[in-house]
Specification:
By secondary structure, the chain is α+β, with helices and mostly antiparallel strands. It has helices at residues 97-105, 201-207, 226-247; strands at residues 6-8, 11-13, 16-17, 20-21, 26-27, 36-38, 41-43, 48-49, 55-56, 120-122, 137-143, 152-156, 161-165, 177-183, 256-263. Strands 2-1-5 form a three-stranded mixed sheet, with no helix packed on it. A three-stranded antiparallel sheet has the order 10-13-12, with no helix packed on it. A three-stranded antiparallel sheet has the order 11-14-15, with helices on one face. The N and C termini lie far apart (92 Å).
Length: 304
Amino acid sequence: MTCAGCCSAGVCQPGSSVSACGTGGAACQTCRSGDTCGEGVCEAPDSGAGDGGLPAGTTTILFEPLGALPIVPDINDVYLDSVTGRLNLPLLPDASPAERAFTQNYLNSLNGFLVSSVPSARASARLDPGTVRAPNIRVIQLAGATSQSQPTIGYNPDTLRISIFPPQPEGWPKGARYVVVLVGGAAGLRDAQGWLLAASPSWQRVRSTTPLVDASGRSTVSGLTDAAARALEALRLRYAPVFDLVMGQGIAREDVAALWTFTVMDEEEAAFDLPRSIIPLPNDLYMSAGGTVQMPVAPSTSSP
């Protein structure tokens, strides 16, 4: 007989209580104090009365890693191939031919992100700009050389995007690795109405301490396919040691609105500064829609 809930000491339990939470016949888990058991997964509360009695809304940091074009924070190690050690950035369908060629032929040949990269994440609605600041946005170095300068935090209410600009003027140190943490909770990020941030269903599962698959790799979450559960479980396990580090700095797991890591390349890189026209040549970026080359005019210089 198949157990629809979870198993404890060889006995099938419903799997819906905080003392015996689970589904799909997996071993029962005991949820942490204050957590609830929803669909067999221990979850921190993200709606209703939040920390300190403050209300939580429906605004989230967008996170949906499943599908052909994942929605995840940008400049993210999820795009670093564990086999080749090279980036494997997706080719966006609305990208120009030049942008696609630059991604495929150059960026995807690197063993990390450019020193000038700008990590960012997008919210589902406008945030209170006064809360988009340190320590609600934290950049924690995990490895590599350190910088003498600090990154700068920016927020664009029109695009709903939080950006972390690299230290100036040198950029991120080559070979360094970081984790970006967006902190919610009572003292953290809020939406424009002052409500606490919620967590998307996928982020709740990745943030959870409960396994999403059983020993045979089958989903233990109702409504989540085996393939989806395995993909999210891989991320959950990948981020587990990072969560341990973050929690060691006094940040509660349930207050982490988003978290991701990024690695900076340690190879030589081509100079690329489009506003200053410093790019590899020849380059299709100078091709007009009509198929003609439109090179910028060099600044005039006086004769000696």
